[in-house]
Amino acid sequence: MINDTLYFDFKKDISAQLLPINQLSDLAVASSPLVKYEKQVTVSQLEAIKLAKSQKFTNASGFVNYSTGNQAILSTTPTGNDAIGQIANGYRAGVTLQLSLFELFGRKHEVRMAQSNQQAAVYRREAIELQVRRELINLYQDLLTAQRILLVKMLDEENSLTALRIAEIEMQQRKLDPNTLANVSNRYSIVKSSTEEVKGQLLKSFYQLEALVGVPMQQLRRK
């Protein structure tokens, strides 16, 4: 039998030996490189939103300075220059803000565009996750179908082998002509070849499942 490299008994129901399909589906989504990529795209789009919102403050600047000495504000009067005020010595602080027309009318559209791109990235990731889950379901069903066909083929092969052994004995006892033995042997060869083909399909489905889920074969077995 072909369980030398696998961890399942193909004569028993495979669905009862594998992890539940929901768990297999979650593992496939978690290990998918495409899903991982789209998650990072979503993160980058969130950062783009933050950047678009923060850029509205790029034209704002602050200042702090300290002044000393006589800083009188002079005015001209009929009697001449006269100090009409005195600015107190000490620290000065303030903010300079310059707003362009883009900041007033265009920035909100840039933020909305970044938000739309981020939402589109989320939808694209969800679509890929759905695609992975569908692929897993199809592969899972192909595996179960291949096993059912294999069981039928194995039974047919056993019957054909038994018929061949009986024909060989009857041939030795001169109860069977060579043409009949050749026909029985030929049928067994055809059945045997068909069984091996189905075995190959089943093995391929198992290895594809292992690759899609992203964990070693032995970890796919239900405990």
From TrEMBL:
GO terms for molecular function: efflux transmembrane transporter activity; porin activity. Keywords: Cell outer membrane, Membrane, Transmembrane, Transmembrane beta strand. It comes from the Bacteria. InterPro entries: TolC-like. It is found in: Cell outer membrane. SUPFAM superfamilies: Outer membrane efflux proteins (OEP). GO terms for cellular component: cell outer membrane; efflux pump complex. Coiled coil: none annotated. This is Transporter.
